[in-house]
Amino acid sequence: MTQGFLRARRPEHKLQRREAILEAARELALRSGVRAVSLGGVAAAAGLAKSNVGRYFGTREEIYLVLAAEEWREWGSEVAERLGRATGLAAVVAALTETLEARPLMCDLLGNTATSLEHNVSVEAARACKRAVLDVIGDLAARVAAAPSGLTESEAYELVGLATAGAGMLYPVSNPPAVLREIYAEDPVMAAACPAFLPALKRIVMAAAVGLPALR
């Protein structure tokens, strides 16, 4: 057994090992996409046995739920800072969407959360992630409503949720796998069906921001 596989006994060592697992999972996901990462791959990248990873996270999905919660909190802080300088609805939409484009891991996680990452996890792991998400959405909704957006807080809540849902939907479409990239390179008509992420997301979010008050 190598030194890397020795059990961490002190609290600080356990924390270091947990962070090493999260960082390995983050780097693998950025390199090859969340869907392609296995628990064994994370263990190998962290220099641990697969069974050792299980002492910190029950499943691969739980690792990525923790990373998803981190991404949401960091994104929320970035958006909040930009909303404090927003001068109109266009600036509010830009704050929500441009920050998502800058976080490819979050967009990838958004696209995988409901379809796979919320499965095969403990109730505690799912609750912790969901609470983090709802806290961020609630905070940003209040800030969007306080900005010169013309939206009520409940409308702003819907808008923030739509922005993230739209990002999760658009990200895999606008970042296609190798087979589709080859097809698009050969067929311009098919390539036109591959949207540019940021313009498409901005259009969706702006349409909702303009339309929501009409539904009052």
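Second entry:
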Amino acid sequence: MNVLLVDDHPVVLKGLRFFLQTRPNIHIVGEAQNGEEALQQVEKCQPDVVLMDVLMPNMDGIEATRRIKEKHPHVQVIILTSSSDKDHVLPAIRAGASGYQLKDVDPRLLEETLNAVMSGETSLHPQISNQLMTHVARGEEQHSSYHDLTPRERIILEHITHGQSNKEIAAELHITEKTVKTHITNILGKMGVQDRTQAAIHALKHHWFEG
């Protein structure tokens, strides 16, 4: 997979490159030190995955993620930051990030995260996952509304609520399974949930597809 590294700290960039370039299936195609450079490098390097810091000058990682996903929905973005603040976590997920990892993550877990998002899955640092589950349990977080989803995302989510697999959805909509996975990743990010089951439960609970 082709990976773009985005961080405003040269030492972090050097460390990421040192580890990732030793992995046989990972190719570092570029680096950027802020969100604006990230947008330029995505156009130039055509990465499969972007490892994105949050707090950067000129344009932060959340805004950069949103713009990347709008123009290149197939590009997966993993937030890699020192911030576990939910004021950063939730906006990043809603912007379309497929993963959120802290910089203290074990390098092996980072590699697993890269492989997971390339397979259409989401991946959260255990600390982030626990925080989100706590907020959901307390009812402190609000999911996105039905109107936050695109028409295509609404159709796919409705199929999910009917219990259809990615393969079945792809066949019915005449699109590829990879495209279905990309849409599902975006749906999960916008809804702030971790998997398709949670998304389906929320949609059914709020009667999104009735009437």
